[in-house]
Backbone:
């Protein structure tokens, strides 16, 4: 089975440019999470969706960041304009929520996108 | 903000030894607990899930959960150099039924030959 797919795997861009990261969750999963990981701050949750609806975007650092999930198999995270401090590894993860069940919430991560903003 | 704390590393053990990784969490109502392994330059990989008090064994890995003490641990028996990685503890958000997890900062483990 295909896992979570992310593209691109590496992105190098100049400050001020727009960056779009893409994610395809595991088929059948209905929750999708965007994380950012840096040495300084560890793994941070940026935003998550359930059934394509944004649930909590309180982790999005600034208005420069936006995310969409137009359908169950695709999500984007956009940074416009990008800044050097946005350099990090961005992960997408998906899970299948099982409301009412204790055994739930296993998240599976994609390979990540390493973003470098110069 | 829910807190998930892991023992500070790095942790270094010889090959064949038992590695013990610890995690405490602040939300007493959490019900789902996970251990992820992350190799350098790779993404987190789920290796253990535990939901009930006690021990859960999977090969060389044992997860231990004590909800009264708000404590979860991971034991790695017969440690191998290939176990060298950062281990992340994750706990579900009781206030969310939609799968949000809180992650610790991770403990870096090195197993030397």
Residues:
């Amino acid at each position: 089975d295909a896992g979570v797919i992310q593209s691109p795997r590496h992105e190098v861009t100049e400050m001020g440019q727009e960056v779009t990261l893409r994610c395809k969750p595991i088929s059948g999963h209905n929750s999708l999470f965007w994380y950012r990981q840096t040495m300084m701050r560890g793994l941070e949750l940026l935003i998550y969706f359930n059934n394509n609806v944004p649930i909590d975007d309180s982790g999005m650092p600034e208005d420069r960041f936006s995310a969409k999930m137009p359908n169950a198999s695709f999500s984007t995270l956009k940074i416009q304009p990008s800044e050097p401090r946005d350099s990090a590894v961005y992960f997408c993860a998906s899970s299948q929520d099982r409301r009412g069940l204790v055994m739930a919430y296993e998240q599976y991560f994609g390979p990540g996108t390493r973003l470098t903003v110069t | 903000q829910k807190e998930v704390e892991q023992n500070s590393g790095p942790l270094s053990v010889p090959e064949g030894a038992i590695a013990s990784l610890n995690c405490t969490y602040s939300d007493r109502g959490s019900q789902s607990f996970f251990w992820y392994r992350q190799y350098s330059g790779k993404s987190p990989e789920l290796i253990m899930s535990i939901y009930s008090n006690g021990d859960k064994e999977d090969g060389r890995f044992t997860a231990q959960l004590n909800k009264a003490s708000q404590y979860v641990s991971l034991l790695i028996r017969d440690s191998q150099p290939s176990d060298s990685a950062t281990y992340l503890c994750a706990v579900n958000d009781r206030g969310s039924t939609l799968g949000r997890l809180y992650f610790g900062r991770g403990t870096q483990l090195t197993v030397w030959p």
Q: What stands out?
A: The CA atoms of residues 65 and 76 of chain A lie 11 Å apart.
